[in-house]
C-alpha cells in the first residue's frame, strides 16, 4: 500500500509539473484576446445657413441634392437653417422660415456670408462648390458610436415621441442634439437670376430644437447601450407627414454621428447604424 501511495504521489507531482510547464510555454501576449472595435460608417451633417433673400442659396441647395444623390440621403444629412439678414426682408421683417434659434446658431458660428455650410461641426465653408470634397473626405471616417432613432406620432395631440438608441464603439462624451425639420414647403425665394420665385420648394428646413438650443449632456462607454426618449408637440402650421427628426452627438471634436428619421415612421424607415 505504501508503494502504491508513493507511485501515486510521484505521478501527481509530475502531472502538476507538466501542467505548469504547459502554461509557461504560452506567450504572455497570447493569454488574453483583445476584441477589436467594430467599424461604424460615419454619416455627415451639413448645417446649411440660408435665407429666402439669399440669391446664391438655391445653388447651395442644388449642391446638397447632388451630394445626397451621390452618397445617399441617409448618409449626407442636411438641415437648412434660415437665419441672419437674408432670412429677413429689407425692412428687417422675418420671412416665414426664419427662427430665433436659427439666429442663435448663426451668431454662435459667426457666420458672415450666405450660403455657409458647417460640415460635421469641423469645417465652416461659405464656398458651396467645395462642399463635395469636404463631404467626401468626412465620409471616409468611422464613427465612435452607433446611432439610430425611432418615432411614434399621436395625431390627436400632435405629439411625437422620439427614441434615440446608441451603442458605444469607443468612449464618447459630449451633447445629444434633437432637431425637427420639414420638407416640401412652398414659399418665396430670391433666385440667382434676380427673379423672385413665389412657388419655390424648400426642403430640410430647420423648425425647432427639441431638447434645447445646445442639446443635452450625453456620454456613453465602450460597448454600453443607451436609449434617450423625448417628446414634442408639433406646431399647428407644420405638416407632420413632411417632418423628420435629426439626432446627432457632438463635442469639441465635431459631430460624432448623426441620423435622420421621419416623424411618421413606417417599418421601412428604420436606419440602424451597424
From TrEMBL:
Listed name of the protein: Outer membrane protein Omp28
Gene3D superfamilies for this protein: Immunoglobulins
Pfam families: Omp28 (PF11551)
